[in-house]
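Q: Sequence in, structure out?
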Amino acid sequence: METRVSARRLSELLGPRSVGVPAYGWLADGIRQLVADGRLLHGTRLPSERELLTQLGVSRTTVTRAYGVLRDRGYASALRGSGTVVQVPGGPVAGGGEPLELSSLQPTRDDVIDLTCAAPAATPGLNRAYEAAVERMPSFIAAAGYFPLGVPELREALAQRFTDRGVATDPDQIIVTTGALAGLAAVFRAGLNRADPVVVESPSYPNSVRALEHAGARVVGAPLVSDSVDDVAGVIRRSNARMMLAMPDFHNPTGQVWSDDERAHVARKWRSTGVTGVVDETMSDTWLDHPIDARPMAAHAPGCVTVGSASKTFWGGLRIGWIRAPHALVGAIARARLTMDLGAPVLEQLVVGQLLQSQGALSDESRERIKASRQVMLGLAERCPGWRVEVPTGGLSLWWHLPTESSTALVTAAERRGVLLAPGSLFAVDGRGLERWIRTPYALDDLTLHRAADAIAAAWGDVGAPATRSARANSA
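A: Exactly. Output:
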């Protein structure tokens, strides 16, 4: 299926013409930035020269010259019968998905659609943020370049971000890390001894659970807080837990959000039992329908440690995360972190700082794009008999309840059809069960998701529909 951008839509994406820049240069650079930001996908056909000059009110010479510049720089090619088609210089790089523990599920062919990864494409404006960061680099390269706690200006920006959300924070409480998982690992190393019990909701993000196990913790599964906060409190009490790992904002994989009452209840339990709460806020900014109607967990539990990341908001390739810790714990966490690495790359820290200043969180354009993609994947409810889902108001994936215990079989059938899924058991704290559940991320582009949905529906016809008919026949 060919992708085409209309002259009207391209005009909207380009925005107002830059003052003091030749028209052809503005047009060529604008399209180049759209390709670099992923807003014009590799292989998208551009409007004809006649269509574009009418829409933009420029001369034909301007459009012809701009398209020529794009071809010369490798951002477009002229195809017989197709006009001018944009391209990523050298072609898009396959892979780049978020690795889970089932390495066999990672793509082996360019035509495989990887739905084991719940992460969006880069935010619009990322390329310009890199350009601005490069201009700042001369201020830093005269020194050695080690910032083990983070570049000061990024720590200040993150502290202000927490303060603006109602959690008073100073920069000394912030440690910049190479991603959220590295932040969690540093917290676990600082706060746990071998065999210490740590409570984790099940299902949960598998890489975080593996990080706990690597730290020597004894992982104790608990129900989801949003399903039964009293039962979770009981698990904390009976297990004599030292720590609890929590994801109150768009929990991965379920998308659930803790209410203010649930946050207050859990915070009281942490205080009364001496449990250190470790809060994963990786998904906090990925709201789609409306912002979270609850205060941050740190507002309820000042003694908790919060870990965040730029990966779900800006781009996973930045590999920048952060820790916000109470003053009493920040020193121990910083020392533990230094046993793992000596700091995150300066350039990427400057990029994140630039993005925090320019857009703050998930961009409006990204939000609308992800909402549209979510709708594509929700279409599976009509195409896969018996599938049920609670539609989350944010996050990046759907957590489907299947009518039969077919998760692993569905994963196998989908892989044969070119789509990679992660079975429900991968998200179980003990790695077993959840055969009636499957996660379908929806942060990819619409065209790819339509192909993925077709393949998943066909795969369900291979393995799920016969089992569903058999179950109905037995019940009758």
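Residues 248 and 258 are 5 Å apart (CA to CA).
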